[in-house]
Amino acid sequence: MKTLLLYEDNAELSESIQSMLELNKQVKLAGAFKNPVEVNDHLKNLNPDLLIMDIDMPGMNGIDAVRKVRISHPEIPILMLTVFDDNKNVFDAICAGASGYLLKKHISTRLFAAIEDVLEGGSPMSPSIARMVLSSMQQTAPANPYQLTPKEKEVLASLSKGNSYKLVADDLKISIDTVRSHVRNIYDKLHVHSQAEAVAKALKERLV
Q1: CB 38 within 8 A of CB 12
Q2: DSSP H/E element including 168
Q3: Dihedral (Cα; 98, 99, 102, 103), 10-degree rounding
Q4: Tens digits of per-residue pLDDT, 75-98?
Q5: How far is it, in rounded angstroms, from Cα 150 to Cα 147?
Q6: Which residue has the higher pLDDT, 131 or 123?
Q7: Residues 102, 77: contact at Cβ < 8 Å?
Q8: Cβ neighbours of residue 62 under 8 Å, at least 6 residues apart?
Q9: Three-state SS string across 160-193, please?
Q10: CB-hemisphere CA count at 13 Å for 149?
């Protein structure tokens, strides 16, 4: 049985959700709170498997709470509750580390499915929010985080094929000394000490 914590400041809605959760024998509500100001204490004392978190709450909103939780408990799933879809608050909550969200108008029909989805590692969200998150990641992710030059990338790509320095030199029409110079720069920029480390890092992080 999975244990849950609920954070919802609307008393009527909170009671309704609590009543619904009592009907589900697969989960147990360990606590319901009006705001997440003491969320870290709740996590420590109640050890829940999932947080259900409203976005708009007094004292501390759900987005700030997600950021706070992610510092101390990066692994715990957090399902956000929201009135509006496709808004900046939902987007900010997901970017802060929320696992997904559920529209309040769908609680009566989709709450259990959303809980199951999140507990299994899913991320329920609308396609429009997913596109916003993806677009944000593409805009903020550095295209060349190690500042490799085009020629250094070519050398690294050639090394990744298993080529020797001589074959790299022949392949790129440069001298072996130039290859060695590029390799030294690559090692410095990638913070590695061998060709194997450089190639492994390049492949793992898709640098080539």
Answers
A1: no
A2: helix 165-172
A3: 40
A4: 999 999 999 887 889 989 988 899
A5: 9
A6: 123
A7: no
A8: 7, 36, 53, 54, 55, 56, 80, 81, 93, 98
A9: HCCCCHHHHHHHHCCCHHHHHHHHHHHHHHHCCC
A10: 11
Q: Is the pLDDT of residue 136 over 80?
A: no
Q: Give the 3-state secondary structure of residue 105.
A: helix
Write down the pLDDT at residue 132: 78
The angle that helices 195-204 and 150-160 make with each other, rounded to 10 degrees, is: 100
Global confidence as pTM: 0.67
Does the pLDDT at position 27 exceed 80?
yes
Amino acid at 98: A
The torsion angle over the Cα atoms of residues 94, 51, 27 and 29, rounded to 10 degrees, is -150
- DSSP code, position 48: -
CA distance 194 to 200: 10
Question: Is 102 within 8 Å of 81 (Cβ atoms)?
Answer: yes
Cα(66)–Cα(74) distance, integer angstroms: 10
- Map out the domains of the chain with their CATH numbers: 2-140 (3.40.50.2300), 150-204 (1.10.10.10)
Structure tokens belonging to residue 86: 């496709």
Question: Residue holding tokens 């898709």?
Answer: 206
Q: Average pLDDT of 91-106?
A: 91
